[in-house]
Amino acid sequence: MVAGGSVAGLAAAAAVAPYAEQVCVVERHPEAGTAQASIVPQGGLPHVLLAGGAAALDRLVPGIVRELFERGAAGDTTGPRPCHWWAFGAVRDHVPDLGAELPMASRALVEATLRRRVAALPNVTLLHGTATGLAVADQGVAGLETADGGLPADLVVDGTGRAARGEEWLARAGFRVPERERVPVDVSYTAVDVARDPSDLGGALFAVVQNDAACARIGVALPAEGDRWQVVLGGYFGASAEPSYDGMLGFAGSLPDPAIARLLRNPWVSGVRRHRFPASERTRWDKATLPAGHLVVGDAVASFNPIYGQGMSSAVLQAEALAALLRDGRDRRELTRRHARAARAVAEAPWRVATGADFLYAETRGSRPPGTDRVNRYLARVMRRSADDEVVNLALSRVQNLMARPESLMHPRIAARVLGGGRLRGAAA
């Protein structure tokens, strides 16, 4: 039984299906999977399946990445991907060949395509309903409670997202609520779609103007189906772009690079969407005692600042970790313990990337890990060096695409190139 029919829940259903007689996905949104809209609150923001997440999804649902390209996703190229990525005063002009595809499409298209493919599996059923709790017997899952009654199950996967009520479900079943970590940032996002020409920004596939210590603002433009750019502007600690042409253009003009402002002058092809992200959060299911057969994936494990584009890919990689454990034939209790640890390990890298970047600012609250400022100074050098050193660029791109751990950037071979050599591009005189 899977609670939640967005990317996390659907990927989990695909992971479980080869090892179950029957899989039922319960989703409360009747419009789930339509190509017109995403069912998640942040669905109107630009989204991307990072290379690591796309590869994992294609292993769970073979051929889905090719189908996304056939349905209009951009990025169907081989070799390096041209980009315009401003960070700490330097511009990286390409992402190296990562040996994996990088489909760029709206969240709605990804959800609709994945939902159709999962629904076509012979032992998967999709139900419209609202999950309300766990049925537990003898310290193990007995089923999923819904607003319409109980559904028996040997496994229940909670993929209900950031608004999940899994802790409440556990408390009602007599289990201790796990601890939760929170890093408040209060980021306000304003997004719009504009017409896209392949020659925009010199042929760049996407554009990023990254936040740095001097500017708590960010802009991103990603391509999507229908020859459009998905453009989003983000402001920390209450700053936001007004949802109008002049307001967004003025905000984009305050960024330290003009790329996003130039794109906003293209014809607008959608209305303006807004989204507020108060804090990154993660729940330590790996430290909790859970009923045997209760598993958690996606934003209910860890929810990161969405501007870093890691949410969908992290959820898919957690689902793939579940598939690997099921393949090994674990009993329910061992499966529950091991997957909680595996999901936490998957989420650790994007959590460190997102919260580490957010801790650039003194205003960011939360538990600041020791050495964060020193690490951030080093990562700023990595970003600048990646603009003119291909080895560093590849190492950084693998981390950003969830294909390598952040600590790989500390490897002596990489550190020597980051800390040595000539003057960094974008460095102060």
Rounded to the nearest angstrom, the radius of gyration is 21 Å
Instruction: Flag low-confidence runs.
Output: none
- H/E element sequence: EHEHHEEHEEEEEHEEEEHHEEEHHHHH
Number of strand elements = 16
From the N-terminal CA to the C-terminal CA, the straight-line distance is 59 Å
Helix content: 25-40%
The geometry reads as globular
The average pLDDT score comes to 91
Coarse structural class = alpha/beta
Strand content: 15-25%
- What's the tally of helices? 12
Q: Could you give the order of strands across the largest sheet?
A: 4-3-11-12-13-10-14-16
Q: What composes the largest sheet? A: 8 strands, mixed
Describe, in plain words, how this protein is organized in 3D:
- By secondary structure, the chain is of the alpha/beta class.
- The protein is built from twelve helices and 16 strands.
- Strands 4-3-11-12-13-10-14-16 form an eight-stranded mixed beta sheet, sandwiched between helices. It has a five-stranded parallel beta sheet with strand order 5-2-1-9-15. The chain has a three-stranded antiparallel beta sheet with strand order 6-7-8.
- β6 and β7 form a beta hairpin.
- The longest helix has 27 residues.
- It starts with a strand and ends in a 10-residue tail after the last helix.
